[in-house]
Amino acid sequence: IMLIFTILIPLLNPLIAIVNDSTMYQVDSPYMKFFSTSQYINPINNQKFEAFHLLGTNNIGVDLWVAIWQGVSRSLSIALVVALINVVMGILIGSIWGFFRKIDRFMIELLNFINNIPGLLFYMLMLYILNALGSKNQYFNLILCLTLTGWTGLARLIRNQILIISNREYNVASKTLGTSPMRIIIYNLLPFILPVIITSISLEIPATISLETSLTFFGFGFPPTTITLATLVNAGYSELARHNYVLFVPAIALGIITVSFYLIGLSLADALDPKEHR
Length: 278
What we know:
By secondary structure, the protein is mainly α. The chain has helices at 2-12, 30-35, 64-99, 104-115, 119-132, 138-148, 152-165, 169-176, 181-189, 194-217, 229-238, 245-272; strands spanning 17-19, 25-27, 40-41. The chain has a three-stranded antiparallel β-sheet with strand order 1-2-3, with no helix packed on it. Helix 3 packs across helix 11, helix 5 packs antiparallel against helix 6 (138-148) and helix 10 (194-217) runs parallel beside helix 11 (229-238). The longest helix is centred in the first third of the chain and has 36 residues, at 64-99. Mean pLDDT is 75; it is low at 16-51.
């Protein structure tokens, strides 16, 4: 349901907030023009629930109902790209790491070095360096930073799973018959750890959105003019004392996304587990 709303509502209700002066904002939305006599609204007086503001407006007069679905759309697009890159790298590196024991010492030392660096601090530092170098594309900056070390957890997990099942009889027989390592990995090893991979993907998406929210809160994410779940939560935090629903509504949407992907991951993991279909 959330994915359907994410696609349809921004298409039906495009929302653009343009600052005209210190107190007035222009909102370009078809149903706003239909119900409102003026395209200009006062954000202080208009923070209330009305027929054409299902969830009210935030501190700059942006309709929360439309803004949340635009924010979910942008946040999910980043999370899906980051999750896809991390999963591909994690599967590739973890499979090679688990199958070829000679690189075990190097990989363990590399991951120990990476894991000793506080993750949030590392992402802040990388974003600061990219911004200092003149990279203005915040989408690219976030995706690059979140994928530099995001693959390590899945790679270690896949390596451990491959170590457990690599010495089973059919794998030993395949090695004896001269089967190539890549074929053994693809056909003998990965199908048995597919539930683990699916669960990792489902957990990677909400984790990425949470990281984006944390980075935006500390001023290293998207600017306030870009509508994402993170910027909406950050904007709502400043309005918590006067209009607490401006924070609670996007926070509830973030919570629903997290729980939904977690439940989807558990269901897919059970459905794809070979042990459940013997």
